[in-house]
Amino acid sequence: MTMLQTTLPVAEQATRPLPSRATRVSRTPVSAPASAPSQTGTRIDASHLQRYCFTSHDEVLEDLTSVLSAVRTVDRSVVRHHTKGWARDLLISALVSDLKLWRSPEVTRALADTLGFLTADRWSFAFTYRKPRKGDPRQGHLVQPPEQSRVFMPFSNGLDSFAIAKELRAASASLELVLVNVRAKDKATKWNNLGRKKTFDFHTVEVAAYAPEPHRAELTFRSRPFLYDLLAGYGAAIAQPARVVIPENGQGSLGGSLVPLGAEAPHRSCHPGFTSRLANLIRLLTKTEVRFDHPALFLTKGQVLGSLANRDTAVAHWLATHRSCSYDARHSSSGKKVMHCGVCGNCVLRRVSLQSAGVPDSTVYRAKDLSATTFEKSFAAGEPHNVKANRDLALNSIRSMQRLADLAIQPRSMRVAAEVAALARGLNEPFKNVREKMDAFLSQHRKEWEPFVESCGRKSWVAEFAGN
């Protein structure tokens, strides 16, 4: 969830191949929508979410994980050919127990609309009957009585999700906070051991994603939030009264849509236009209205981290335990020590935000020196072998931040107006109100970005990349 997603986060890197029972994908003629070969299938185990929320077996959740597995498999396996355009024609084949529900025009339209908005591809679906599975989960009901207020949150253990989780807990001691974390694992952690884990600062409900990657996987992977947010939304639907909170800051939620990279389609992983479509899909599947809230939508990451620092003064601890870097950890290390690359979209935003919030940045970055006169001189341990790829990544990151700042002084920008109109529809708010919030957000981003570039120095590579 970020402005620039170049590689998979650590939690989404490949695991060893496992057979897929939930996804059945066949080869199709060249003229047909593309699908994925069966050996790249993904299997998602959401049994812990099921155990947490109810006692009896739920076939809709089984069907959901089948569809999610198929979506992830096809999105990662069918490579985009940018010379032919961004959009792909993708065919999803999945086994489901309720053919009438999944084949209904309302559901297939909602699926295609939600995924199309998120990935800018054209999706079609072929559902095959799956015999319902018998048996109840072994673990009893753990959710509090119906009057208990609860929030479901897709939880990545990044700084934003940590900060918003802390804020929700501080605002209401009686709130039941259900953090849904999707992790690439060979098998799910045993249910009885989940509460004893020390990996996160909060207890999480773990969803295991068995995700063997194809040899040449499609890097954009725009469907990833569909998996996270749909599972959190489904949990909220069956654990009413409940809502879903999307913790992403304004730059991460809106930046990729306001300033798309090159010929790429707008990046809308945390956009209210996506979550409003997702809420409609959940309503069709469960007959339950689920609200998606975006508390940090018009806040910069600097504002989010400033609030976090006021609430939790153990800054060095939460900086060390909450990673931001989106660059592949295999290529962002020194002396076998994994560190932040320092130049991807997430790292640049982290550095800008911490400086703006007045928070000492104890993060170890591979590209440490932002005041260096050349990009190659910024690396503490010497120029890396993949310096060209790092340079391209840094250039895109810096330029995206600069372009977003430039929008603050372009009041008649058609892109901003179109984005405000889309947000007004997704949030169901008046255009004028959303425009005021957007203007304030863009102005705040510029107030944080310009001093950051200035602090790097007029002769620095950062200033050069920003066009100053």
Overview of the structural elements:
It is a single chain. The chain has 468 residues and is of the alpha/beta class. The chain has two domains: 10-293, no CATH class; 319-466, no CATH class. Helix content is 41%, strand content 10%. The protein is built from 15 helices and ten strands. The chain has helices at residues 47-53, 59-77, 99-102, 105-119, 159-171, 224-238, 250-258, 272-286, 301-311, 315-321, 345-357, 387-406, 414-427, 431-456, 461-466; strands spanning 43-45, 89-96, 122-129, 150-154, 176-184, 205-210, 242-245, 292-293, 333-334, 337-338. A six-stranded mixed beta sheet has the order 1-6-5-4-7-8. It has a two-stranded parallel sheet with strand order 2-3. α6 (224-238) packs across α8 (272-286). The two termini are 28 Å apart. Residues 1-31 and 136-145 have low confidence and may be disordered. InterPro entries: Rossmann-like_a/b/a_fold.
Give the SSE map:
Layout: E1 43-45, H1 47-53, H2 59-77, E2 89-96, H3 99-102, H4 105-119, E3 122-129, E4 150-154, H5 159-171, E5 176-184, E6 205-210, H6 224-238, E7 242-245, H7 250-258, H8 272-286, E8 292-293, H9 301-311, H10 315-321, E9 333-334, E10 337-338, H11 345-357, H12 387-406, H13 414-427, H14 431-456, H15 461-466
Parallel strand pairs: 2-3, 4-5, 4-7, 5-6, 7-8
Antiparallel strand pairs: 1-6, 9-10
Helix pairs in contact: 2-6, 4-8, 5-9, 6-8, 8-13, 9-11, 11-12, 11-14, 12-14, 13-14
